[in-house]
Structure formats: structure tokens, C-alpha cells
């Protein structure tokens, strides 16, 4: 299904602006919404947004689990959990409604181990888990984190369907463009394990001794000199053992990919009101559209708040010049006017950036979250962010 050009937009509410408003509560309340994936570049507030959405959904009656793969572990702190791990843990303090909220953090290696243990006999699993190449692959191979995020999402979804424990999964993704690497992770891992070098190493384990041709012998002799006999043997044993499991890995990854394309999934692109972040957001939108992923909308975090006065920046600076000519010395009033002008120009610049994005992506619903004066570090802070996401007026 790759390559289709289709952007599915989530619930909208007209605001009179060029970009339609993202109706967050309609998205959260819709029982057909089963998965929300938050993606975006680094440092734009994906973890906070994910946690806030999950908390708001739970307090509106949904049974929610939020999965983060952000290494900063800010989610655990904000939700009052000592430490997050690969097992969903209940969040204490959820109010209102009849919902519930669990939180967890992806343990990449543990997830990989669980898949191996579920697919292989105890003897085969032990052989794989103790192999040095498996340990390296499961801990640091490029794309493994994203691949295992797909595995964990698939596991959560299947378990939720069986148990009924959850009716909404919120996924926090890695920073920068790697946040969409989970779309490529199965293919990348497939390419590695299906590569000519790996196939060559696997050939002796797959066929009779006659496959050990003179050419292969030359190659293995050379590799033995470079890697050492033990290292080469470990690699061959790993490939031979893992090869029996790889079909299952690929099949499950394809199922999860189709799950991400399903109507029950909603992608939210998270950005900050800065040129680089919005350029990344445009990349995400294009990529999601190209992969036929259901895009619900854009969240612009930490937007500057316009000053209460309607005095424009140029007018304020004009008044400063008049004061300078009249008084000849800097004054407190002139300083305040300069601050007003600077703040107004920041607000105008951010509005222009959002307008540019909306002109290029007119059907992408948008929610703008104003910047807070303090960091979010508890459930009350997450509730406040959730309210702002839903369009509630900032509290005084």
C-alpha cells in the first residue's frame, strides 16, 4: 500500500483562520480512535503532549496506555512514577470519568528478547539470546529501537483486543526524522538479514557440504584472518539460529504497518513555532501522506502569547522615538515599549510561520498551545496542557 497519496484529516472545527482547528476532544472521545502517534523533531514537546493527551483521554473515560521511547524519562517524573520500564504501570491521581491510565517506556532489548522467547523453543531462544552478535544487534543496531517500538505497539494492541484493558494507545516517538524510521525499520532489518554477505554466511547452515565451494572457502578464510575464527563462528551461528525466526518478525512488522494505516490510528505532528521545527513538520506531513498514514493534525507548542495591548510593534517604537526626542534620556516607559515591540514582533513572526505552513498544507488541522511560564512536572501541569490542546482559554 505504500506510495498512495492520501491525507486523512481528523475531526475539524472551523475557526475562521486559514488552518482549520484541531478538535482534540472529538479525537479523544471517538471510540473508533484506538491509537494516537505523536511524532516530530527533537525538543518540541512530544513527550509532554503525549502524556497530556493520554491523561485527558483517561479523565474523559478512556482506558489508556501511553508508550514512550524518549530516553529523557520526563514522562515518569510528570506522572509521579518512580521509574518506567517495559511493563505498563498505573498512574495514580487520574480524576473524573471512569477511565484509567497506565504508562510505560520502551525497553528495546527486553522487547527484542520477548519476541525471540515467544517465537523459539527454550533451547533455541537461549542460543540466540546468549550470542554476542544478537546482543549487539538488539542493543545498538541502527533502526532496532524503531523496529522494537513497532513490535511493542503491536503487542499492546493485540493484548488490548484480547483483554479489554485498554481502548486507546498513545505513542511518543524518538526525536527528529528518526521518528518516522519505524516505517522503514522492518525493511532495513530485512535488508540486513537478507543481504548477500549474511546469505553467504548462512549458506553452509542451509545446504549440504557441497555448497562449501572453493570460492566460499577463500572468503571464509579471509574473514577468519580478519575477524578470528571464534567471531566468524559466532556470527554464522547467530545468522543460522535467527533465520528461522525472521519470517515471523517480518510478518508481525507488516501487520503493525497495516495497523498504522488503519482508520483507528491518528498521527499528530508536533512542532514548535520555529522555522526548522515547522520544516520538519512539513516533512512529516509529506511522508505520512506518502505512506497513506492517517494524519489527524498539527500541534504547535510553546507559542508566544500576544501582549494585551493592541499597540503594534512599529507604533510602539515610534512612541519610543518620540520619548527620546522629548526627554533625551532612556526612561522606564521607553523600555517597556521596546519590550512590547519585541514581543509583538515575535508573535507576528510565529503567526507568519504558521500561516506559511497552513498555506502549503491547507487541510492539516492545527492546535496552537501557548508557552507556559513554568515547566510541566506533575499531573496538574499535564491537565493544563491538555486543556490548552483542547482549545480552553489559558488560566490566569
- Largest β sheet strand count, sense and barrel closure: 8 strands, mixed
Annotated CATH homologous superfamily of the domain at 12-185 and 256-308 and 361-388 = P-loop containing nucleotide triphosphate hydrolases
Question: What strand order characterises the main sheet?
Answer: 5-6-4-7-3-8-9-10
Looking at CATH, which topology of the domain at 12-185 and 256-308 and 361-388 would you report?
Answer: Rossmann fold
* End-to-end distance: 48 Å
Instruction: Specify the number of helices.
Output: 15
Helix content: 40-55%
- Assign the structural class, choosing from mainly alpha, mainly beta, alpha/beta, alpha+beta, or little secondary structure: alpha/beta
Characterize the structure shown.
The protein has about 400 residues and is α/β, with parallel strands linked by helices. The chain has a domain at about 10-185 and about 255-310 and about 360-390: Rossmann fold, CATH 3.40.50.300. About 55% of the residues lie in helices and about 15% in strands. It is built from 15 helices and ten strands. The chain has helices spanning about 25-30, 45-60, 75-80, 110-120, 120-130, 130-140, 145-165, 185-195, 195-205, 215-225, 230-260, 275-290, 315-325, 330-360, 380-390; strands at about 10-15, 20, 35-40, 65-70, 90, 100-105, 170, 265-270, 295-305, 365-370. The strands form two sheets. An eight-stranded mixed beta sheet has the order 5-6-4-7-3-8-9-10, sandwiched between helices. It has a two-stranded antiparallel ribbon with strand order 1-2. Strand 8, helix 12 and strand 9 form a beta-alpha-beta unit. Helix 4 (about 110-120) crosses helix 7 (about 145-165), helix 9 (about 195-205) crosses helix 11 and helix 13 (about 315-325) runs antiparallel to helix 14. The longest helix is centred in the middle third of the chain and has 33 residues, at about 230-260. It starts with 11 loop residues before the first strand and ends in a 7-residue tail after the last helix. The model is unreliable at about 1-15 and about 205-230 (pLDDT under 50).
